[in-house]
Amino acid sequence: MAENRAQKTKKGGDGNYEEDLDTYFVDRLRFLNQKDHTTQHLKQRFKERNGRLEAQEETGDADKATTTQRQVVDDEGGLAVVCVDGSPAADEALRFTLAQMPHARSLVLAHGIRVSLTSSSSSSSGSTHAPFGEDEETEALHQALERRYLKMCRDAGRHCMVKHFTYTTRGGFGHAVCYLADKKDAAAVVIGQRHPRPLLGASGTAVMKYCGQRPVILVPESRATDREKEKPTAVGHH
């Protein structure tokens, strides 16, 4: 509008050209100031909106962090299954577990004894004989090992429980251990390795076969005498 008036004044040739030109510039400046004010207002609103969004994001991040922390604590709970049989390798597997597993995680000590396939049968005299491994001697062995390992747990300030079982086939040990791990939804299975060799023994092979995707931690017996040179190996799937 001011620009049009200035153009008309210039074309008219009257003596008010300079005055009208001043009016044009004043009007133009006022227009630009109003435009700048509008721009600043929009910028302020945009800034306030961004501030609210950032605050919401920070709140959301805090909630996510709390949830993640809670999940980590939950992950540290649960339990682990440790295979024990009284051997130095089993002892070292338990020592490793007591030292490395989170204290919030309970430990189930799995102790198995292989028995013969011969079921209870009657002799010619009519007396009944229990299969090998299912007698008083075996029960005494179970109890002795249980007392020994529970003492190791108590000394370490850990909660442990012992599960005894018998098995009859070569792969029966692994099947029983992994069944227990599945039933308890164990976070991991720990087993000792008697010899520092790349190939697993029969028990370790059976555990790997039946535990599927559950992590299996292999602890070498030599760790007891040379802890720095040979580290425990996680051989299970994650």
TrEMBL record:
InterPro entries: Rossmann-like_a/b/a_fold (IPR014729), UspA (IPR006016). Transmembrane segments: none annotated. It comes from Acanthamoeba castellanii (strain ATCC 30010 / Neff). This is Universal stress domain containing protein. It comes from the Eukaryota. Residues 118-128 have a biased composition (Low complexity). Residues 40-55 have a biased composition (Basic and acidic residues). Residues 40-70, 118-137 are annotated as: Disordered. Residues 81-209 form the UspA domain. Pfam families: Usp.
